[in-house]
Amino acid sequence: QVQLVESGGGLVQPGGSLRLSCAASGSIFSINAMGWYRQAPGKQRELVAAITSGGSTNYADSVKGRFTIFRDNAKNTVYLQMNSLKPEDTAVYYCNTDRVRTLVGTMYDLWGQGTQVTVSS
User: Fold this and answer.
1) Strand, helix or coil for residue 65
2) Is 65 buried (19+), middle (13-18) or exposed (0-12) by CB count in 10 A?
3) 42, 14, 32, 3: which is closest to 117 by C-alpha?
4) How far apart are CA 82 and CA 80, in angstroms?
5) What are phi and psi of 96, to 5 degrees?
6) What gap in Å lies between CA 82 and CA 38, rounded to an integer?
7) Exposed/middle/buried for 64, CB within 10 Å: 0-12, 13-18, 19+?
8) 80 and 49 Cβ atoms separated by less than 8 Å
9) Amino acid 22: pLDDT
């Protein structure tokens, strides 16, 4: 069984920074693309940033130039560095991967439990 566990959320003032981490645990052989999504109250979940197994990235227009996604394949971990945070970045942030190959089979569309990010003065 593979689990995604996020950490690093919290309360930060506008203009501040946070780094989110998402670690995959289990008998993992390889992880395909990984991404960060967020969902604010009353809104749909949206893609924030994604990274392929080869390191190619894409970002939502609203976070380009402020957020950076990167991964450490040796640690099965993806990160989201968030700088110049704005109140509108407030949301629950979720980690996702579309495919994980394990020693006993392949798992698809896995999600973490979410971590709250609140940007407020």
Assistant:
1) coil
2) exposed
3) 14
4) 6
5) -145, 150
6) 13
7) exposed
8) yes
9) 98
Q: What is the dihedral of CA 120, 35, 64, 47, to 10 degrees?
A: -70
Residue 48, both tokens: 């924030």
The residue with tokens 């040796």 is 74
The per-residue pLDDT for 87 is 97
Neighbours of 114 (CB within 10 A): 17
Given a cut of 50, the residues of the chain with pLDDT beneath it are: none
Structure tokens, 12 = 């930060």
- Per the CB < 8 A criterion, the answer to whether 62 and 4 are in contact is no
Whether the CB-CB separation of 119 and 89 falls below 8 Å is answered with yes
Q: How far apart are CA 3 and CA 102, in angstroms?
A: 12
Q: Residue 1: what pLDDT?
A: 86
Q: Pairing relation of β-strands 57-59 and 77-82?
A: unpaired
Task: Report yes or no: 49 and 64 within 8 Å, Cβ to Cβ.
Answer: no
- Sign of the dihedral defined by the CA atoms of residues 36, 39, 94, 110, in that order: negative
